[in-house]
Specification:
Length: about 425
């Protein structure tokens, strides 16, 4: 609904609106906007190459995890010799020995390795959600900027309409001899400035539209519309958002990386034990003039003479310490960003409400009263122009405040790790 009633001086044939009320007085017959913020986000998440890269990284880690949980393959050995041919006089070469060796992972090293790989997968999935959250933030910024550009055009168009009306009145009064040429030129100058503002607003919309279409992959020749720019709702309390901060994808990814690093420390400790392998072999030999087959069982153990694996353990422990420190840094920075964004948004909302009641509505009223006084010859042209320019500044500032609040709202969602939609393509396209 409008902030103020229609001015009584508005003609039914023209019905221009006061600038302060222009974006609140839309005709009821307008079609619904074809691009909402939610639909825009879903569109970008369905085509973004950033998510393709994130999925590929997740699948890469899944492949490594599949191998991490498997035993090493056995080794087959075949030994060829001419010994038997010499012994029986037949000559030639034959298989003298064949053996199979199998490494035996001990002390749970495979389990630790598989656990670490699984944590890396979980971290990659959280990173994928963070990519989606970042894309949503980028789309929201472009969406709000396009809404702002549309509101600026509407404001400039309404401004140009009533300045044109002022200029027409000035021309008539100048012809009647009750308005000087200088005053008539000032009214025409005000109208020319309004036309320039409208041209500038149209250029701004072209730039905002190009960014929006580029992100969504929309044909530049296709027409589109977005809802009008409005005041965002009041956000949840800061304490509530802080309690939910551990669900942030960045923190979830960092926590999984810490868990993976700790599992790799256990793996490195287990690998300090010497490698053990079992060897089973069958050998053909000439015994007492007969071709006989003998069986052998052997155990292979690495001798840790030069390396006991302490360096690997120290390296993994340092990596785990680093990962945990980075997690704490992420938590600290997210907390700062969360509080900053929340403070800015609540402050912007208060500013919007105060500006509307203390500046925007009075500016409409002052302009209406000044117009009536000017038509009745009680007020000067200077007072009319001052009132008109004050109204323009008030409305333009209100639109800017709406954009500022929406951008802070988007920043708050990013800092809190909250997405508009929880559904986005998980599989490769």
């Amino acid at each position: 609904m409008p902030l103020t009633p229609h001015p009584r001086w508005v003609r039914p044939t023209h019905r221009p609106l006061l600038v302060g009320s222009l974006f609140l007085l839309l005709p009821m017959t307008l079609p619904a906007a074809d691009w909402t913020l939610e639909r825009s986000v879903e569109r970008v998440l369905s085509i973004a190459p950033e998510l393709d890269a994130a999925r590929a990284e997740r699948n890469r880690r899944a492949g490594l995890a599949d191998e991490a949980g498997r035993w090493p393959n056995p080794t087959l050995e075949l030994g060829f010799s001419d010994e038997l041919g010499i012994e029986d006089g037949s000559g030639g070469w034959s298989v003298k020995e064949y053996a199979i060796s199998q490494a035996l992972p001990i002390d749970g090293r495979i389990g630790y390795r598989a656990n670490a790989a699984g944590k890396r997968i979980a971290a990659a999935e959280a990173e994928q959600r963070q990519h989606a959250l970042t894309l949503e933030h980028r789309v929201a910024q472009a969406f709000y900027r396009l809404q702002w550009a549309e509101a600026r055009i509407e404001q400039a168009r309404q401004q140009q309409e009533w300045t044109q009306r002022f200029a027409t009145i000035g021309d008539r009064r100048a012809q009647a001899g009750d308005l000087s040429e200088r005053e008539r030129l000032r009214l025409n100058l005000l109208n020319a400035e309004a036309r320039a503002e409208l041209d500038e607003a149209k250029q701004g919309r072209k730039a905002a539209l190009a960014t929006f279409q580029g992100l969504l992959g929309i044909d530049t020749q296709a027409s589109l519309s977005v809802p009008k720019l409005e005041r965002p709702p009041t956000p949840p309390r800061l304490t509530t958002l802080r309690q939910q901060l551990d669900r942030h994808p960045l923190l979830q990814s960092a926590a999984q990386e810490v868990a993976a690093a700790q599992a790799e420390v256990k793996q490195a400790r287990a690998e300090r034990l010497p490698d053990l392998a079992v060897r089973l072999a069958r050998e053909r030999a000439y015994i007492n003039g007969r071709d006989e087959t003998t069986n052998h069982v052997g155990i292979q153990v690495e001798l840790p003479l030069w390396s006991q694996g302490r360096g690997r353990v120290d390296a993994k422990q340092s990596q785990a310490i680093r990962e945990d420190a980075e997690r704490q840094v992420t938590m600290r920075d997210l907390g700062i960003r969360l509080e900053r964004s929340h403070t800015r948004l609540t402050g912007a909302l208060e500013h919007i409400d105060k500006h509307r009641s203390a500046v925007l509505v009075p500016a409409d009223q002052v302009l209406e009263q000044t117009r009536r006084g000017f038509e009745q010859g009680e007020l000067s042209l200077t007072e009319l122009i001052d009132a008109a320019q004050a109204n323009i500044r008030a409305t333009r500032r209100y639109i800017d405040l709406l954009l500022e609040a929406r951008e802070h709202e988007s920043d708050l969602r990013l800092a809190a790790g909250q997405m508009l939609t929880t559904e986005y393509p998980e599989q490769d396209r």
